[in-house]
Amino acid sequence: MRLVVEADGGSRGNPGPAGYGAVVLDAAGHQVLAEVYDGLGTTTNNVAEYRGLIAGLTAAGELGATEVDARLDSKLVVEQMSGRWKIKNPALQELADTARELAAGFEVVSFTWIPRAQNSRADALANRAMDGGSSPELDPSLAAGPAPKPAPAPAATPATTWTGQVGTPVRLILLRHGQTELSVERRYSGHGDPELTGLGQQQAAAAARALADRLDAHGVRPAVVLSSPLRRARQTAAAVADTTGAELDVREALIETDFGGWEGLTFAEARERDPELHGRWLGSADAAPPGGESFRAVGERVGAELTRIVEEFAGETVIVVSHVTPIKMLLRDALGAGDSVLYRLHLDLACTSVADFYPDGGASVRLVNDTSYLD
Description:
The protein folds into two domains: 143 residues, Ribonuclease H-like superfamily/Ribonuclease H (Nucleotidyltransferase, domain 5, 2-Layer Sandwich); 205 residues, Rossmann fold. The longest helix is centred in the middle third of the chain and has 20 residues. α10 crosses α11. By secondary structure, it is α/β, with parallel strands linked by helices. The protein has a six-stranded mixed beta sheet with strand order 8-7-9-6-10-11, with helices on both faces. A five-stranded mixed beta sheet has the order 3-2-1-4-5. α7 links the parallel β7 and β8.
């Protein structure tokens, strides 16, 4: 008999109060046969993820499974259990050995990474466990029919920071795209669509590795990689998505400023062509290049997209791959600064900045223009 196991685990604080959850389903992945979840005291996300897998495999075995399709949103656990990644942590090695012993009791076991959004059942159980809940002892008779629907998990108590923000923030990791030929020549590059250069591809890969390593070290899984639709951003975002295992989603609002008639010109060429307008543009967010877009307009569309992101990914970590102006707009809003900051911020190619945005409108900037991984 083939069954599906969806497993998850988490820790609030990493390490912090932790719990795991696992759901056993029929072969089609529709009918819930069993749910198991429990708290773990204080430990890390990765430990909790493994404990969720172990609980799910144990439950599947008790229900008589001979084949198991284990689905998790932890790329680390999937890659380690599949033998593609080495296990350096002794505690994780012990848990992986336990999971492999359980897996050996089945005729076939597969380990599949799924996006977090597709693992909502196990995630809800893990959160219930972190809130102090635990599942009753498994009844093997559940294999004969569907399990009753679980009661809704209790709402988490909103967190309050020392600066007064309320709620759990969305953490945005803001990554500028890598080098293009236009950036080499220091030309205005807005809605034009150049590819990354060879160096730009190397920068994207380096940024992706650094982000994946940092997130894994803290047991954090990005909910999604959001990208501008332009090719230089999508190429950079694809490297990040491939490395982190996160889903890539293109958002039109994250596109760079439309520089209109200045597209492809150098700074000096644009100034020579439109000296009066260029001078105003350098000091006013309301001035726009000929046939192009003002910084004010960019800020409005980026601000509207930020509102959607905060609502859609509450409490998650989201990687945003975009361009100089949209990233500056997000940092300006996070800092609560005026338009003058747009002309004072410097963002290098393939740099990373980090800001937390709270549901009550508060924000906290944690990092600006990091390029340490490019050295």
